[in-house]
Structure to design on (398 residues):
């Protein structure tokens, strides 16, 4: 069932209304500075649209993982100042959005004015989805807009609970875009449809593999996950990261869907994960004892790129190697470039997964793929076919 969207509301009815917008402003920071502002930039279109039509806009977001109450380290106050610069207008900061004083402050906002509430996780009951806290958040608005795709897989007071209490409850522009790209890819893919999976652990991606197998033409497997499959094929994997308890499952997957699963033909290996240790590129059946696979090798990149080049829909979750440590970033970069090439040739290409998205952004290729999801865990759960509580609670489209 598709969900009611902000775009479907008559904008002339927004004038003077108090609109509570749940955003995902959980950006990475170092020494008080934002190191990647992707999520803030992605949130702006919804905020600007509401302001343009005269709404009073109240922003809610979590930030980091404060343990058991307020912690100045996780205050959203620095983000309020950042938003003021981007919007070119003042942002009222609500230290405690659960108070009557905050309700009054919101009523006093000018048309087009913006308030940002302190970190939702500072308030007891947020993560337990306490109805009393949801009611306090709900008291701030006449309309609820959920634009926090990155948190949509969590049923929290500011994502799920509030959506039952403020009506209408609709998706924002970012949420709509995420659901459209990911939804079309899995429900109505233009074929050939290719998935690329990597990352550290096969255990975290089993549900994804099982959910995708009936839908895709091929799954390309990289990352440490490939090593568990190698082991299941009876190959020597040296000291590579293998999940022993998943070897039987990998063997079963190979038996049942052998031709759909495409494994690397070779490995980039080293004795230690250390940029200065000697590396070698070897065929997958020649990983020596004492060495470990930290990336797919160039022959695998070529083989993967050939398949990606024939695809009309591609989804990618999980890096091909330890991309944080060159030269083990080459496989991930090669796949990112292949995605850019496929996009230029007309394919729909989607990157989900926090680390894969970061790798594509670091390579400067984020504008050369169709869509980079802002939600790592949420995109994974969506692709697994699990309902996202933050989306499910929104009004159904009529
Ligand atoms: P995503 O966030 O894109 O879903 P994951 O979190 O599943 O990806 O996995 C990312 C991690 O996997 C990275 O930190 C990367 O270093 C690690 N990784 C990838 N390949 C290997 C490998 N061959 N050996 C060890 N770690 C790996
Ligand atoms: Mg990750």
């Amino acid at each position: 069932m598709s969900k009611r969207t902000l775009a479907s509301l008559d904008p002339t009815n927004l004038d003077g209304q108090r609109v509570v917008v749940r955003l995902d402003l959980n950006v990475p920071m170092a020494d008080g500075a934002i190191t990647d502002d992707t999520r803030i930039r992605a949130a702006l279109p919804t905020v600007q649209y509401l302001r343009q039509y005269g709404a009073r806009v109240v922003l809610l977001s979590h930030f980091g993982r404060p343990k058991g109450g307020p912690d100045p380290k996780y205050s959203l106050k620095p983000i309020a100042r950042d938003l003021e610069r981007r919007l070119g207008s003042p942002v009222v900061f609500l230290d405690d959005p659960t108070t009557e004083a905050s309700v009054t402050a919101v009523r006093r906002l000018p048309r087009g004015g913006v308030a940002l509430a302190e970190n939702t996780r500072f308030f007891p009951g947020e993560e337990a989805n306490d109805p009393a806290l949801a009611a306090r958040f709900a008291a701030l608005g006449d309309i609820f807009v959920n634009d926090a795709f990155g948190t949509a897989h969590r049923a929290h007071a500011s994502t799920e609970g509030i959506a039952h209490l403020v009506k209408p409850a609709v998706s924002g522009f970012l949420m709509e875009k995420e659901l459209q790209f990911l939804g079309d890819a899995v429900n109505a893919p233009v074929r050939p449809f290719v998935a690329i999976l990597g990352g550290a652990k096969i255990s975290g991606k089993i549900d994804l593999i099982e959910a995708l197998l009936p839908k895709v033409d091929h799954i390309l497997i990289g990352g440490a996950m490939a090593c568990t499959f190698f082991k299941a094929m009876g190959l020597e994997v040296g000291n590579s990261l293998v999940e022993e308890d998943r070897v039987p499952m990998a063997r079963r997957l190979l038996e049942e869907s052998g031709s759909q699963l495409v494994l690397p033909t070779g490995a980039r290996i080293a004795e230690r994960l250390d940029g200065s240790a000697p590396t070698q590129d070897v065929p997958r059946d020649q990983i020596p004892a004492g060495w470990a696979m930290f990336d797919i090798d160039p022959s695998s990149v070529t083989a993967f790129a050939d398949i990606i080049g024939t695809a009309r829909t591609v989804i990618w979750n999980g890096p091909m190697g330890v991309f944080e440590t060159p030269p083990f970033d080459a496989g991930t970069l090669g796949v990112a470039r292949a995605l850019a090439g496929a996009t230029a040739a007309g394919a729909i290409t989607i990157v989900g997964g926090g680390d894969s998205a970061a790798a594509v952004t670091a390579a400067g290729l984020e504008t050369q793929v169709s869509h980079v999801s802002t939600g790592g865990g949420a995109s994974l759960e969506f692709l697994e076919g699990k309902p996202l509580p933050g989306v499910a609670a929104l009004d159904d489209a009529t």
Notes: Residues 198-200, 204, 223-224, 241, 293-294, 317-319, 321-322, 324, 353-356, 376 surround adenosine-5'-diphosphate (ligand 1) (CB under 6 Å). The domain at 189-383 is CATH 3.40.50.1260 (Rossmann fold). The chain has two domains: 6-174, 189-383. Residues 38-52 form the longest helix (15 residues).
